[in-house]
Specification:
The protein is of the alpha/beta class. It has a domain of about 170 residues: TIM Barrel, CATH 3.20.20. The protein is built from 9 helices and 10 strands. An 8-stranded mixed beta sheet has the order 5-3-4-6-7-8-9-10. β9, α7 and β10 form a beta-alpha-beta unit. α1 crosses α3. The longest helix is centred in the middle third of the chain and has 13 residues. It starts with a strand and ends with a helix.
Length: about 250
């Protein structure tokens, strides 16, 4: 076993006890309640055209950490977490691609009474492993890419069917969720789609918050660094009026 940076490298990779991590944010205040340690996982199956973390897509990149190493790292911030009623948020990439690792991580975090959240698209098959992880998770930040399936396919390369099924499963099992919608002018801010999104949200019983995330291009440099074309080069950030109109439709 040898160390590089903070992660651990092992020839025999055990996906239940080791995870591929892109990076950490230790004083996060936007991804769940209170002050949080945010863990950005490596790997994503979507191809979101506006992705801020283009360098997280490749599941074979990132640094390898054990469950024990993550718990030790998180424990350094327990005072901030406890005093603010915060916790741990796992983001990405797509965290659910490493569900086995997160199950074991969350079991250890539960022993310390640390609040757990996952920021996800939910675009995975709901199998026994995913169900177990859902049970261990206190809050889901569910990113609904678009209620319009054609728009979702254009934005991400995938249908929204599993995305919406995941939301329904969380609702049926009374798991708290925040619904997030990235507002991209001319694409996800169409009135008819936002009305349908609101209707869908109204059908769910465990939504605690709805968030509009205004599109921005701050992650474009990552695409440039990887030599990848950023297709939204000419898309402008939403105006205050566009944001306000979207919030009015969603009643937030």
């Amino acid at each position: 076993m040898k160390k590089y940076n903070e992660g651990t490298y092992m020839e025999n990779f055990d996906s239940k006890l080791m995870g591929r991590i892109h990076s950490f944010e230790t004083m996060g205040a936007l991804d769940g309640p209170g002050i949080r340690v945010v863990i950005f996982m490596q790997g994503c199956m979507l191809k979101c055209k506006y992705c801020q973390n283009r360098d997280t897509w490749d599941i074979n990149r990132g640094q390898i950490y054990t469950v024990k190493e993550i718990v030790e790292k998180v424990s350094k911030y327990e005072n901030y977490i406890n005093e603010s009623n915060g916790g741990i948020t796992v983001s990405g990439g797509e965290p659910l691609l490493q569900a086995g690792f997160l199950i074991n991580l969350f079991k250890e975090l539960k022993k310390k009474n640390i609040h757990t959240a996952i920021d996800t698209s939910g675009m995975v098959e709901i199998n026994s492993e995913i169900r177990e992880l859902i049970e261990l998770t206190d809050l889901f930040l569910l990113d609904i890419k678009s209620i319009n399936d054609n728009v979702c396919k254009y934005l991400t390369g995938k249908s929204n069917i599993r995305n919406l099924e995941f939301a329904k499963y969380l609702s049926d099992n009374n798991k708290e969720m925040w619904i997030r919608q990235v507002l991209v002018p001319t694409i996800t801010n169409k009135k008819e789609d936002l009305i349908k999104l609101k209707e869908f949200i109204n059908s769910l019983k465990s939504v605690k918050k709805i968030e509009i995330l205004p599109y921005h291009s701050l992650g474009k440099f990552k695409w440039d660094n990887l030599g990848k074309e950023y297709e939204f080069e000419n898309i402008k950030v939403p105006t205050e009026k566009e944001i306000r109109e979207a919030k009015e439709i969603l009643k937030i």
